[in-house]
Write a structure and sequence with these properties.
Blueprint (H helix, E strand, L loop, with lengths): L1 E4 L7 H7 L2 E5 L2 E6 L4 H10 L2 H17 L4 H7 L12
Parallel strand pairs: 1-2
Antiparallel strand pairs: 2-3
Length: 90
């Protein structure tokens, strides 16, 4: 991890952040961080911080707490899915 004072950030912060986490400081105190991410991490972050997605998760959680869940057997019956045979190890 590299710390960079905001007044001394002359090199491209993007170039620093491609390699390692960069913590920006102001008067020696951290104010922000840049972290390298791959495409999968980016997609996870975009989805998990989307207000619509967060609302869906909250509503789903509230409904589950109020009404309970559905068992896998019930889902299989509803959608006429066959149970896959269990494979034995060995």
């Amino acid at each position: 991890m590299r710390k960079v004072e905001t007044t001394k950030a002359t090199q491209s912060l993007v170039e620093h952040a491609k390699k390692d986490t960069v913590v920006l400081t102001r008067r020696g105190k951290p104010v922000a961080a840049l972290v390298p991410v791959d495409s999968g991490q980016w997609e996870d972050w975009v989805v998990s911080t989307n207000p619509d997605f967060i609302d869906i998760i909250k509503r789903s959680d509230a409904r589950y707490k109020a009404e309970g869940g559905i068992s896998m057997d019930e889902i299989r019956r509803k959608y006429r899915l066959e149970r896959k045979p269990v494979r034995k190890a060995g």
